Amino acid sequence: MRFGLSAVFSVVLMVQMAPVRASKNCETKVCKQCIGQGRITRKAIKELDEKLSKKLDQLIKLLQPSASPASTCKDIYEKSLSKGNTAYLLDVGSTKVPVYCHMTTHGLDACGGGGWTLVMKIDGSKQTFHYNSNLWSNKVDFNLPGGKTGLDTHETKLPTYWNTPFNKICLGMKIGQQFKSVVINHQARSLYSLIADGKYRATSLGRNTWKKLIGSRASLQLNCNMEGFNVFKTTSKARIGILSNEYNNCYKPDSRIGFGTGGYPDDSNTCGNEALHGGDNGDQHIKAMGYILVQ
User: Fold this and answer.
1) How far is CA 186 from CA 5, 195, 204, 215, 232, in A?
2) Distance between the two ends of the chain, CA-based, in angstroms?
3) What is the pLDDT of residues 278-288, one digit of tens each?
4) What's the per-residue H, E or C state across the chain?
5) Per residue in 172-212, pLDDT tens?
6) Which of 35, 44, 89, 274 is the most buried (most CB within 10 A)?
7) Is the peptide bond before 265 cis (omega within 30 degrees of 0)?
């Protein structure tokens, strides 16, 4: 019995002393063991993230209606199979992909409900979806897990970008806690078909409608007002949006509102509002979180 207690005491003492010895080793030289533990921790976090993603996929399958998978969120809505605003397993091209569907009239401002299919989420403070990014012209997805999580800050580009036909587009911008949206009534085979070739295609929303995306702080110069898809001029550009100028021409616009933007006056702003030199609400530099859905 004495031997057993002594052995236990020795083990406890060794365990207690181990962190001290490790600490001294780390302080005096590069501690390979500590670095190794850090790598193990990062690996564990990555594995946990992958497990959670798989669990979410399983949950989506459980919630999925028993009928054959639909190809769009509107299909699910019209068949009265909606389970609310969440991710659904859609037949996108030749694969099944979990895609966030917005079904209700709540939370999407002017776009309303009826089954909106998520296509992209863009963080205006990042360069992921800058006007010059290849993601606008290729058929490569980006961060698929972000396509399941709703109207949050996780950027994504889903296969719905090149596979999903539509009759209208919902454009939304979130600035702080404010969410605003507008609808473009435009029929197309996919968003890819409107943007990938780089050709300008006009829309007719009007400057005041574009400004609704930003709210009371929105600012645009009074002239030019060139809007649509692949809006490109010498100084400023937008994959979807509007460019304006102080002069009665579109030679060098100094203001814009849009998605997939770039150029003067702030090339780092890839979604939001930029305005200098005579904007109708002064100079503005507003970066937004952008959302593109189709129906």
Assistant:
1) 81, 13, 10, 24, 20
2) 77
3) 999 999 999 99
4) CHHHHHHHHHHHHHHHHHHHHHHHHHHHCCCHHHHHHHHHHHHHHHHHHHHHHHHHHHHHHHHCCCCCCCCCHHHHHHCCCCCCCEEEEEEECCEEEEEEEECCCCCCHHHCCCCEEEEEEEECCCCCCCCCCHHHCCCCCECHHHHHCCCCCCCEECCHHHHCCEEEEEEEEEECCEEEEEEEEEEECCHHHHHCCCCCEECCCCHHHHHCCCCCCCCCCCEEEEEEEEEECCCEEEEEEEEEECCCCCCCCCEEEEEEEEECCCCCCCEEEEECCCCECECEEEECEEEEEEC
5) 999 999 999 999 999 999 999 999 999 999 999 999 999 99
6) 274
7) yes
Six token digits for residue 267: 């090339």
d(CA 95, CA 89): 10
User: Is the whole-model pTM more than 0.90?
Assistant: no
Tokens in use for 155? Answer: 């950027």
